[in-house]
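Pilot study result, target chain (162 residues):
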Amino acid sequence: MKKLVLVFLIFLNGCVSLHSPYPEGYEGPSALVASSENRVDGSTVQIFYLEKVNQKLIVNSMGASRGATQGQGFSFTSQLIETAVPAIEATFTIVGATAHAAPIQSLFSDNLIVRGDITFTPEPHEEYIVKGVLNSEYSAVWIENKETGEIDNKKIEETQVK
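Predicted structure:
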């Protein structure tokens, strides 16, 4: 049942409005938040990305990658996006999730996901990257400074109970 819900959500994802990460009228400095991936094989990828800013869905790497992959059979094409965000305190929804080239693969594979909100103030003109780890025992996603590797807030963590 869980896998059917996941497939349904994948198809439903095409009917969603996307928003700008900037508040209306904002004219201040920006920072960049990049996505990352761990390629499992040619058709399966673990993507770590920024999904929402202040609870508003934005253009993101999962949606872009799904669009780029459509019609390519079992070949997954990643589109890792760098998102410019305002350098003000905001709530960022970050995600680590398994993505497959063909939706049918979701029925027969592990579909790992970790998602959560962190609130922090990006430094003006800094570059950040969403990173993570996904496996059956432990999954986590976080934002770190791209240059220093310093984790700029808490990790969103999930431990699987066996």
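One observation from the pilot: The chain has two helices and ten strands. A full batch analysis is planned for the follow-on phase.
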